[in-house]
Amino acid sequence: MKEENVTTVASNSKLLPLSKIVSARKFKKIEYLSDNFGALSLEDENISAATTGTLIDFLTRVIVLKDDDAFGESARGVSELANKEQTQRYLFNCATFKVLIDNKKIDDLEDDVFNLGLEICSWEQGIRSGLYVPPSIYPDEVTISHYKIMLNRAKVYLNKIGSIIRTSYASATENGLITGDGDYLAADTLIDFKVSKRATMAPNWVRQLFLYRVLLRDEIVSPDQIKKLMIFNPRRDEGFLLDLTTINPDILTFVKSQAEKRSQELMGSANELTKKAVNLVVNHTVSYEDANLSKHVFNFDSLGHISNEGESLTTEQIRQILLFLIDYCYINKQFSLNDANKGAGIANQIDDKAGTKLIEYEHTFKKIPVDKELPDKFFVYGCKISRYIIAYEKGKWVDINANDTDIKHLKVIFNRIQKFFEEKGIPTELRVNGYSYVGKDWNNLKEETYNIDLKKDTTAWIVGLMTDDNLDILQVKNLKSAKDGEFTEVGIFNPRLNTYYFKTRPKRDYEL
After folding, report:
1. Which of 203, 206, 397, 443 is most buried, taking the most CB atoms under 10 A from its CB?
2. Spatial distance between the Cα atoms of 84 and 73, rounded to a whole number of angstroms
3. Do 244 and 229 meet the contact criterion of CB atoms below 8 Å apart?
4. What's the CA gap between 79 and 81, in Å, rounded?
């Protein structure tokens, strides 16, 4: 069994011929002209192109976007490759770096910012290559001047793009053997930075962008919400843009199919134990048998399994929508809209009419009767309102434009949840947090927290939306902690499959 990254797959012209995707010339070239420096010569710099690219990406995230998560990859490199002395040095460098950039304009940054940035990024490069190599040279005066120009260009560019929803997004095939980390996600645009002297769109960049798009894995942005692919090159202050609405949708299907085909080839003839390990580590899933849960299949309707094919919403978005609708219909109708109203504050920073729109959505939504069969309109406006709830919970204002398939599936799925409540009882609480104690005696007692979706007396439920009998490992851990605590029955109800995975325990002597 082997692994490949998106960059490697993007270089495979036989697997992904541009004749079956789009020509590099299809991308529109944009010159930003944010300064008068023109193209910055790589030959005048004393740091390699690859290292410069990593450093500019890191500095952009930390200095321009104020993103502390930018230290994540280098920290992972330190945790896996560094000794104790190197770890202490890394932590000191990070602390010093943060002090030096605090409240500083880009043009006023000291040379040590770039020197320390280089040392920090060497650990990021180390985790990618598997070998840590400390810097042997540091940026000279010309190189630092170029870095400052590129950072200023990145700042101007990102200001034009607007709100960045995600930095360092992840893309992966279903079995996780092809993976990649892209740079930025805006509301409808996938962006990759290329610090290159190249004046035209490279064929590999085309394949790379398409792979990032079709393999995107993000809880708040789905692949279908990405309508544009873009390269920004701060070395030349240029970009390349493709509007996906202008191409045949079958192209995206082809790229995904080829990537998944290659990923299956990499899996080869791996045994079941290896496949389970891959699922656990890469997809964070486990079978219900391995989770030691029982399974019960309901027969609420004759529609069979509801796949996610054709849906534009992410699994997490659908979960949030369902939980809102459950809260509104069953638990606390009066206060179910509170989080949406709080989310309007975040939304108004991006769209000054967002608050007014929410009032209109809520007014229409409340007029829909819930004591009979729910119309499509109920789910359409439920999606619109849930967008504000997600903004409040995630701190990001993301487009949620449910398509016809989303609404059709939501209607079936919610109907199954209603039938489940008729069978098992109506929940009384939403989003319950708690803790339990595990251990054989007082000497090794350990506190474990849990988060569950729904509570009814001593029963805890989580809404699952997998398309097969695998379960989200985090949901399983939450169930285990809940069972060790106050609950005598815990379970995951998956309305896609009409299936309930559960575990019960006898009441303890002190429990009523």
Report:
1. 206
2. 18
3. yes
4. 6
